[in-house]
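Quick review question:
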Protein backbone atom coordinates (compact mmCIF):
# COMPACT_ATOMS: atom_id res chain seq x y z
CA UNK A 1 0.00 0.00 0.00
CA UNK A 2 2.86 2.34 0.88
CA UNK A 3 4.55 1.35 -2.30
CA UNK A 4 1.57 2.38 -4.38
CA UNK A 5 1.35 5.57 -2.49
CA UNK A 6 5.01 6.37 -3.20
CA UNK A 7 4.62 5.55 -6.85
CA UNK A 8 1.59 7.76 -7.05
CA UNK A 9 3.49 10.52 -5.27
CA UNK A 10 6.37 10.12 -7.65
CA UNK A 11 4.04 10.32 -10.65
CA UNK A 12 2.50 13.49 -9.23
CA UNK A 13 5.93 14.89 -8.71
CA UNK A 14 6.95 14.01 -12.26
CA UNK A 15 3.71 15.41 -13.65
CA UNK A 16 4.04 18.54 -11.55
CA UNK A 17 7.63 18.92 -12.70
CA UNK A 18 6.55 18.31 -16.24
CA UNK A 19 3.68 20.78 -15.83
CA UNK A 20 6.08 23.33 -14.36
CA UNK A 21 8.45 22.73 -17.24
CA UNK A 22 5.54 23.11 -19.68
CA UNK A 23 4.41 26.25 -17.91
CA UNK A 24 7.94 27.60 -18.10
CA UNK A 25 8.12 26.50 -21.71
CA UNK A 26 4.79 28.17 -22.43
CA UNK A 27 5.96 31.31 -20.68
CA UNK A 28 9.16 31.13 -22.68
CA UNK A 29 7.19 30.55 -25.85
CA UNK A 30 4.78 33.31 -24.91
CA UNK A 31 7.71 35.60 -24.26
CA UNK A 32 9.32 34.54 -27.51
CA UNK A 33 5.99 35.00 -29.30
CA UNK A 34 5.67 38.46 -27.77
CA UNK A 35 9.21 39.19 -28.85
CA UNK A 36 8.40 37.79 -32.29
CA UNK A 37 5.19 39.83 -32.40
CA UNK A 38 7.10 42.87 -31.25
CA UNK A 39 9.81 42.13 -33.82
CA UNK A 40 7.14 41.47 -36.45
CA UNK A 41 5.48 44.77 -35.61
CA UNK A 42 8.85 46.47 -35.81
CA UNK A 43 9.48 44.71 -39.12
CA UNK A 44 6.00 45.66 -40.34
CA UNK A 45 6.64 49.26 -39.29
CA UNK A 46 10.09 49.09 -40.85
CA UNK A 47 8.56 47.61 -44.01
CA UNK A 48 5.91 50.32 -43.98
CA UNK A 49 8.68 52.88 -43.57
CA UNK A 50 10.56 51.16 -46.37
CA UNK A 51 7.42 51.14 -48.52
CA UNK A 52 6.81 54.77 -47.69
CA UNK A 53 10.46 55.53 -48.41
CA UNK A 54 10.22 53.45 -51.57
CA UNK A 55 7.14 55.42 -52.67
CA UNK A 56 8.95 58.64 -51.84
CA UNK A 57 11.96 57.39 -53.80
CA UNK A 58 9.65 56.37 -56.66
CA UNK A 59 8.05 59.83 -56.60
CA UNK A 60 11.47 61.39 -56.28
CA UNK A 61 12.74 59.26 -59.18
CA UNK A 62 9.66 60.16 -61.18
CA UNK A 63 10.31 63.81 -60.34
CA UNK A 64 13.98 63.28 -61.26
CA UNK A 65 12.94 61.59 -64.51
CA UNK A 66 10.55 64.46 -65.20
CA UNK A 67 13.27 66.94 -64.30
CA UNK A 68 15.74 64.96 -66.42
CA UNK A 69 13.35 65.11 -69.37
CA UNK A 70 12.91 68.84 -68.78
CA UNK A 71 16.69 69.20 -68.57
CA UNK A 72 17.08 67.15 -71.73
CA UNK A 73 14.54 69.36 -73.48
CA UNK A 74 16.21 72.44 -72.00
CA UNK A 75 19.63 71.13 -73.13
CA UNK A 76 18.23 70.41 -76.57
CA UNK A 77 16.81 73.94 -76.60
CA UNK A 78 20.19 75.23 -75.38
CA UNK A 79 21.97 73.18 -78.07
CA UNK A 80 19.56 74.56 -80.67
CA UNK A 81 20.08 78.05 -79.30
CA UNK A 82 23.85 77.45 -79.20
CA UNK A 83 23.79 76.35 -82.85
CA UNK A 84 21.75 79.45 -83.70
CA UNK A 85 24.24 81.58 -81.76
CA UNK A 86 27.14 79.84 -83.51
CA UNK A 87 25.51 80.54 -86.88
CA UNK A 88 24.76 84.11 -85.76
CA UNK A 89 28.36 84.53 -84.58
CA UNK A 90 29.64 83.08 -87.85
CA UNK A 91 27.40 85.56 -89.68
CA UNK A 92 28.69 88.33 -87.38
CA UNK A 93 32.28 87.23 -88.00
CA UNK A 94 31.60 87.20 -91.75
CA UNK A 95 29.97 90.63 -91.49
CA UNK A 96 32.87 91.83 -89.30
CA UNK A 97 35.37 90.62 -91.93
CA UNK A 98 33.35 92.38 -94.62
CA UNK A 99 33.30 95.54 -92.47
CA UNK A 100 37.04 95.21 -91.84
CA UNK A 101 37.65 94.88 -95.59
CA UNK A 102 35.28 97.80 -96.22
CA UNK A 103 37.08 99.87 -93.56
CA UNK A 104 40.43 98.93 -95.04
CA UNK A 105 39.11 100.00 -98.43
CA UNK A 106 37.79 103.21 -96.84
CA UNK A 107 41.17 103.77 -95.12
CA UNK A 108 42.94 103.17 -98.44
CA UNK A 109 40.52 105.56 -100.17
CA UNK A 110 40.95 108.06 -97.33
CA UNK A 111 44.74 107.85 -97.69
CA UNK A 112 44.38 108.36 -101.45
CA UNK A 113 42.08 111.32 -100.77
CA UNK A 114 44.57 112.69 -98.23
CA UNK A 115 47.38 112.39 -100.77
CA UNK A 116 45.11 113.93 -103.44
CA UNK A 117 44.14 116.74 -101.03
CA UNK A 118 47.79 117.27 -100.16
CA UNK A 119 48.52 117.46 -103.88
CA UNK A 120 45.57 119.85 -104.29
CA UNK A 121 46.81 121.91 -101.33
CA UNK A 122 50.29 121.96 -102.83
CA UNK A 123 48.84 122.98 -106.20
CA UNK A 124 46.60 125.54 -104.46
CA UNK A 125 49.62 126.96 -102.65
CA UNK A 126 51.49 127.10 -105.95
CA UNK A 127 48.48 128.83 -107.52
CA UNK A 128 48.29 131.23 -104.56
CA UNK A 129 51.99 132.00 -104.97
CA UNK A 130 51.50 132.33 -108.74
CA UNK A 131 48.48 134.60 -108.16
CA UNK A 132 50.45 136.59 -105.62
CA UNK A 133 53.22 136.89 -108.20
CA UNK A 134 50.63 137.86 -110.82
CA UNK A 135 49.09 140.37 -108.40
CA UNK A 136 52.54 141.73 -107.67
CA UNK A 137 53.26 141.93 -111.39
CA UNK A 138 49.82 143.45 -111.99
CA UNK A 139 50.47 146.03 -109.26
CA UNK A 140 53.83 146.77 -110.84
CA UNK A 141 52.11 147.10 -114.22
CA UNK A 142 49.43 149.31 -112.66
CA UNK A 143 52.15 151.47 -111.13
CA UNK A 144 54.03 151.44 -114.44
CA UNK A 145 50.83 152.35 -116.29
CA UNK A 146 50.11 155.05 -113.75
CA UNK A 147 53.65 156.30 -114.26
CA UNK A 148 53.13 156.08 -118.03
CA UNK A 149 49.79 157.89 -117.70
CA UNK A 150 51.46 160.51 -115.53
CA UNK A 151 54.30 160.83 -118.04
CA UNK A 152 51.78 160.89 -120.91
CA UNK A 153 49.82 163.61 -119.09
CA UNK A 154 53.05 165.50 -118.54
CA UNK A 155 53.96 165.03 -122.22
CA UNK A 156 50.42 166.04 -123.19
CA UNK A 157 50.72 169.17 -121.04
CA UNK A 158 54.18 169.76 -122.46
CA UNK A 159 52.85 169.28 -126.00
CA UNK A 160 49.92 171.55 -125.20
CA UNK A 161 52.47 174.06 -123.89
CA UNK A 162 54.56 173.54 -127.04
CA UNK A 163 51.46 173.88 -129.20
CA UNK A 164 50.52 177.03 -127.31
CA UNK A 165 54.10 178.29 -127.67
CA UNK A 166 54.09 177.28 -131.33
CA UNK A 167 50.79 179.10 -131.85
CA UNK A 168 52.29 182.11 -130.11
CA UNK A 169 55.37 181.82 -132.33
CA UNK A 170 53.14 181.46 -135.39
CA UNK A 171 51.20 184.53 -134.33
CA UNK A 172 54.46 186.29 -133.58
CA UNK A 173 55.86 185.24 -136.95
CA UNK A 174 52.67 186.35 -138.62
CA UNK A 175 53.00 189.66 -136.76
CA UNK A 176 56.66 189.85 -137.87
CA UNK A 177 55.70 188.99 -141.43
CA UNK A 178 52.99 191.65 -141.32
CA UNK A 179 55.44 194.07 -139.75
CA UNK A 180 58.05 193.08 -142.35
CA UNK A 181 55.58 193.67 -145.18
CA UNK A 182 54.66 196.98 -143.66
CA UNK A 183 58.37 197.77 -143.35
CA UNK A 184 58.94 196.74 -146.97
CA UNK A 185 56.04 198.87 -148.06
CA UNK A 186 57.43 201.76 -146.03
CA UNK A 187 60.88 201.19 -147.53
CA UNK A 188 59.43 201.01 -150.99
CA UNK A 189 57.49 204.22 -150.33
CA UNK A 190 60.69 205.86 -149.05
CA UNK A 191 62.58 204.66 -152.08
CA UNK A 192 59.83 206.11 -154.31
CA UNK A 193 59.97 209.38 -152.46
CA UNK A 194 63.75 209.47 -152.74
CA UNK A 195 63.51 208.92 -156.43
CA UNK A 196 61.00 211.71 -156.66
CA UNK A 197 63.27 214.03 -154.72
CA UNK A 198 66.19 213.16 -156.91
CA UNK A 199 64.33 214.26 -160.00
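Suggested answer, residue by residue:
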Amino acid sequence: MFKDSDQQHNRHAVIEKKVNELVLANKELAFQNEEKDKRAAELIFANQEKDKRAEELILANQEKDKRAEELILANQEKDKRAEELILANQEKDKRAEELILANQEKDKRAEELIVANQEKDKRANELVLANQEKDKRANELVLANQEKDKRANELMLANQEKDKRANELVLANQEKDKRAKEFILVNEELDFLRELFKK
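Why it works: Residues 2-198 form the longest helix (197 residues). The two ends are 275 Å apart (CA to CA).
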